[in-house]
Design a protein that fits this description.
The complex is a heterotrimer.
Chain A (H helix, E strand, L loop, with lengths): L4 H18 L11 H25 L9 H41 L5 H22 L10 E5 L1
Helix pairs in contact in A: 1-2, 3-4
Chain B lengths: L1 H16 L2 E5 L25 E6 L6 H17 L2 E6 L6 H8 L7 E6 L5 H4 L10 E11 L1 E5 L7 H7 L6 E4 L5 H13 L4 E4 L3 H9 L5 E2 L3 H9 L3 E6 L25 E9 L4 H14 L3 H10 L3 E4 L1 H21 L3
Parallel strand pairs in B: 2-3, 2-4, 7-8, 7-9
Antiparallel strand pairs in B: 4-11, 5-11, 5-12, 6-9, 6-10
Helix pairs in contact in B: 2-9, 2-10
Chain C lengths: L1 H10 L2 H19 L5 H8 L8 H18 L1 H6 L9 H12 L3 H36 L2 H12 L1 H5 L4 H15 L2 E2 L6 E2 L13 H19 L18 H23 L5 H15 L11 H17 L1 H7 L5 H12 L8 H4 L1 H29 L7 H20 L2 H19 L5 H23 L11 H39 L1
Antiparallel strand pairs in C: 1-2
Classes of the chains: A mainly alpha, B alpha/beta, C mainly alpha.
């Protein structure tokens, strides 16, 4: 992969993001529009310059050996696990969801001891749950499908 | 594998022993583990139950303090547990959104104030309307105090009105699109004046700028204003409620100074999701009413700078709608 | 003097001392756990204080506050994850020290610097609050505006190696700080139609995600090793000469902390960044910053703990909170009928002096509580990465959720973490995001009030002496590092040329 490639992608994504903000600008009342408009303009200008610079550099850039693909193979599935954890929170309730996530994550990260795995999942979840609901009076998410609650 | 399975079973067992309730397949929208609906033999619905009171603002704020104070006493009268849940964010809309999508079983209630029922016209992306709520009662009405800087020469209503003729006198409010703005509009409409609107991020910042002379007039709440008034850093002009406030009996009302019938307060109340059985809400409102007569509560409220004032279930139904319409008309004609 | 003795006797009762220690223990824990913060500790415990005596209630909150601000530095050193934003500069140095096998020394240094900063700030509060109240009174909106801009100049120092990207990150973050209701009309900007965005992105959630998740992902790059390759905590012992060398730095940083704390718009987090920045400017070895410089840690920690006392000055004397936790102190005080403001010191002398003396005592006790945590915390380095990574994710989720109890904030936290990781991988510094988010909305607020107050004649703000001083200060703070960089660049090219001619 060439070194300037990520910068090209990032500046394009950033420009897209700034454009999505710019289309919302006209709705904002005049009096408080100037400040964000100026910021967006400056940010857009800087991204364009970064884009142009990176593109110009791209041809002459050396190709660097990185292990990005290999690392992404570990990180992306882990991210998906977090996404699933958050999505299921309101369906499974805090306790079941968290126990499942901890188990899944520890299996995925290849913790050797199975005893430790289960112990950590259960103890950590229960401790967090009890401390928050009983002592700190924070209402944890309920599950719509299954709900486990410790009273 | 067997070992792991037995461990899971064992841990499941300990969970059950710890006294947990497991409900499976509660169905969509059934948020709570306990099912409501049954009324105990003596006719009280709330006894022994757990009520969630959503406060759509952060813990420790004015709204939170007032709600906690009242719920502390209402709890004993109802014989139930009230859990205060501060669901902050979205200008109060996230908590209210959570309320209107919860079961109308009387066990989920929320804090509400003047402008909340107009969220759909004032803010973007809000799906609830005034019809999504079932008003329960009002427990506090906090007046603002109009204060002026010493350099401005404003001391009473007459000089305040005179200063408002040119539109150059600055009037600091504690936040945009809340009761602060409506108070200013109501005052301007009643007196035919016009002030230069300056938006601060809270009543305290506004009054400090008045104390240092940077801003001419501000309208903080009593709790925010008394210390600067006592120290003589600002000049108190009037309280905005119909009657004088027990926390500051020396400060006259606007009505006394000639603005007949002027009454503008920030009320704090309770709402339930629309469709909640009326009998439950009546029971809750009555308990709050009883709590609001407790002298201990009144004393604590006064030190906290909140003015307890109770409006019961029946009266609040009309008051809620009237207030809704009045705020809506101001929003629609608003022009800064 | 009488009041001081009165306060001292009130603090020295067994019950109140217990409250102080308990507050510290819980506060440090909240500060240290990723996803939990000092603000959250105070917020969660405010309702608990309703039934306590006013003096004891304020001691508990002070313990939580000081402990929380200090506690954030423990994971900052050990894992490179600042437990609270105030320890972000510490994290820049901490991890490098761990890799050198000097975790123990770093933790001791952090504790000493924190105790020093906190204790001195308590003394400032005790001795100078009357005088400093006058200063706080002079800080109006135009002054606040320049202070926030001044704060942003730290970005330049933070991203010296990659100035262009650093500034770009800061500007985009300032845009993110605009999300939500505008300060003048309350129009919700950039909400994409989500009602959850009406009050903007929750800064705490963004910072939790930004600081903790990238470290988790870094662990996953090589998930089967231990955190520190050496696995060594190293000795906690320090030489007297090392302490002496840091003394001047600590004094300067503490004073910066107290000063920043006085300003309503900025709290411990900004103080830490500014003190770190000044230490780097003053250092004889600025190139060591980012590679595990002791000076950086001392500056950041004495700076942020200095701000704890400083932020109570405008609170006690004017009723204006100087930081988010101070805002919670305000509501607790009001609820107990101890109304902050000009009359506080005469009407509620006993409560106030109990609190101030307690603040000093708490900071001294913090040394012992801190060392216990440091000893226990060092064991983190021995935990397998798999367990650590999982725990951090779970804690970050529950911490973010419980602050405001909505899942939207948790998604924001996750998004910030993923973006932060991508940025770090591509040499975009993330520290400017924290700075810009923390200062952005205050800058816009101060700017819009200033603009409405001085409508049409904005130049009139320069009739205010403090504004002029701050404006000059701001200009210098932007120009100085740029000039230094230019000089360095010129010297380099000169040297290169000289080498060139020599070859010829």
């Amino acid at each position: 992969m060439k070194k300037s490639l990520p910068d090209i992608i990032i500046s394009i994504v950033l420009l897209g993001f700034l454009a999505s903000l710019a289309v919302q600008l006209p709705d904002i009342p005049d009096i408080s529009r100037t400040y964000p408009t100026v910021l967006i303009a400056v940010a857009a200008l800087m991204s364009v310059i970064l884009l142009v610079k990176s593109v110009l550099r791209y041809k002459t850039d050396e190709t660097v050996e990185t292990n990005v693909i290999g690392q992404m193979k570990i990180i992306v599935p882990f991210c998906l696990m977090i996404v699933a954890y958050l999505l299921l929170m309101n369906w499974l309730g805090y306790i079941v969801d968290t126990v499942l996530f901890i188990l899944a994550s520890l299996i995925y990260l290849r913790l050797k001891s199975k005893v430790a795995m289960v112990a950590i999942a259960v103890i950590m979840t229960v401790v967090i749950y009890l401390v928050f609901t009983q002592y700190l009076i924070v209402v944890m998410p309920f599950g719509r499908l299954i709900n486990v609650a410790i009273l | 594998m067997k070992k792991a399975l037995s461990l899971i079973l064992a841990s499941a067992l300990t969970l059950t022993m710890a006294g947990c309730t497991i409900t499976i397949g509660g169905g969509l929208g059934d948020g709570t583990a306990t099912t409501g609906g049954d009324v105990s033999s003596d006719g009280s619905f709330y006894a022994g139950k757990t009520v969630t009171m959503i406060v759509p603002w952060a813990a420790g704020g004015g709204a939170d303090t007032a709600v906690r104070l009242v719920c502390d006493y209402a709890e004993d009268i109802l014989g139930c547990t009230i859990v205060i849940s501060n669901v902050a964010g979205g200008g109060g809309s996230i908590g209210l959104q959570q309320l209107v999508t919860s079961n109308p079983d009387g066990l989920t209630l929320a804090y509400v104030a003047n402008t909340d029922s107009n969220g759909d016209v004032m803010l973007e992306g809000i799906t609830y309307t005034v019809d999504s709520f079932a008003p329960v009662c009002v427990f506090a009405e906090d007046p603002h105090i109009i204060v002026a800087s010493k350099d401005s020469g404003i001391t009473d209503l007459a000089s305040l009105e005179a200063a408002g003729a040119s539109g150059e006198t600055s009037w600091g409010i504690g936040g945009a699109w809340t009761h602060w703005d409506f108070l200013k509009m109501e005052f301007e409409e009643a007196t035919g004046t016009n002030y230069h609107r300056v938006v601060y991020d809270g009543g305290t910042t506004a009054i400090t700028d008045v104390a240092s002379g940077d801003c001419d007039v501000a309208t903080p709440f009593i709790s925010e204003a008394m210390s600067q008034i006592d120290a003589g850093n600002v000049v108190p002009v009037a309280v905005t409620s119909a009657e004088r406030n027990p926390s500051c009996p020396d400060i006259p009302t606007l009505a006394e100074q000639g603005l007949d019938g002027f009454d503008s307060t920030m009320w704090r109340g309770v709402v339930a999701p629309a469709g909640t059985p009326e009998s439950y809400l009546r029971e809750f409102a009555e308990a709050v009413g009883e709590a609001c007569q407790n002298p201990e509560l009144l004393e604590r409220a006064q030190t906290a700078g909140t003015t307890i004032s109770f409006i019961g279930y029946d009266e609040f139904q009309d008051y809620f709608m009237e207030n809704h319409e009045s705020v809506r008309s101001y929003v629609e004609q608003a022009d800064f | 003097m009488n009041e001081i003795l009165m306060g001292l006797t009130a603090v020295m009762t067994p019950y109140n001392l217990f409250i102080c220690v308990a507050g510290l223990f819980i506060g440090v824990l909240f500060g240290a756990l990723p996803g939990f913060s000092a603000t959250m500790a105070v917020a969660i415990f405010v309702p608990f204080t309703y039934s306590m005596e006013p003096g004891s209630a304020l001691l508990l909150l002070s313990g939580l506050y000081c402990g929380g601000v200090y506690g954030g530095s423990i994971p900052a050193v050990l894992l490179g994850i600042p437990g609270t934003p105030a320890s972000a500069p510490t994290a820049l140095e901490g991890n490098a020290l761990v890799r050198k096998g000097q975790a123990g020394k770093a933790l001791h240094l952090v504790t000493l610097a924190s105790v020093f900063g906190g204790f001195v700030s308590a003394l400032c509060l005790l001795v100078g609050s009357g005088l400093l109240a006058q200063v706080a009174m002079m800080v109006g909106q135009p002054e606040q505006m320049f202070i926030t801009i001044f704060g942003l100049s730290v970005v330049i120092m933070l991203s010296e190696d990659n100035l262009y990207k650093g500034v770009m990150v800061a500007i985009v973050s300032l845009i993110l700080a605009c999300f939500g209701q505008d300060p003048i009309e309350g129009f919700p900007r950039f909400t994409y139609g989500f009602s959850a965005l009406i009050s903007g992105l929750n800064v705490t959630s963004v910072l939790i995600g930004l600081f903790s998740l990238p470290e988790v992902f870094k662990m996953l790059e090589d998930p089967f090793g231990k955190i520190a390759e050496s696995g060594k905590v190293g000795s906690m012992k320090m030489k007297l000469s090392e302490l002496k060398a840091s003394l001047y730095n600590a004094i300067r940083s503490t004073l910066i902390g107290v000063g920043v704390g006085i300003v309503p718009a900025a709290g411990p987090d900004i103080a830490a960044f500014m003190a770190y920045n000044q230490a780097k400017k003053a250092s004889k070895h600025p190139e060591q910053f980012g590679q595990g410089a002791d000076e950086g840690i001392v500056a950041a920690e004495s700076g942020n703990n200095g701000a704890t006392g400083g932020s109570l000055i405008p609170l006690l004397t004017l009723g204006i909170p100087g930081s988010a936790p101070a805002a919670l102190f305000l509501s607790a005080m009001i609820l107990h009928g101890v109304r902050p403001g000009p009359t506080l010191f005469t009407e509620h002398a006993e409560t106030v002096y109990t609190m101030i003396i307690g603040f000093a005592v708490i900071n001294l006790l913090m040394y012992f509580v801190g060392m216990i945590y440091c000893k226990a915390g060092s064991m983190i380095l021995k935990i397998p990465k798999a367990i650590l990574a999982t725990s951090i994710v779970v804690l970050a989720v529950v911490g973010t959720y419980s602050t405001n109890r909505n899942m939207f904030d948790v998604w924001v936290m996750f998004g910030a973490g993923v973006i932060g990781y991508i940025m770090i991988r591509n040499d975009f510094p993330i520290a400017p995001i924290a700075l810009a988010l923390l200062l952005g909305s205050n800058m816009e607020k101060a700017w819009s009030v200033t603009k409405t107050l001085y409508e049409g004649e904005l130049y009139m703000i320069f009739t205010r002496p403090l504004t002029v001083a701050l404006a000059l200060f701001t200009v210098v703070s932007f120009a100085f590092p740029l000039y230094k960089m230019y000089r360095k660049h010129k010297n380099k090219t000169k040297a290169a040329k000289a080498a060139d001619t020599e070859v010829k």
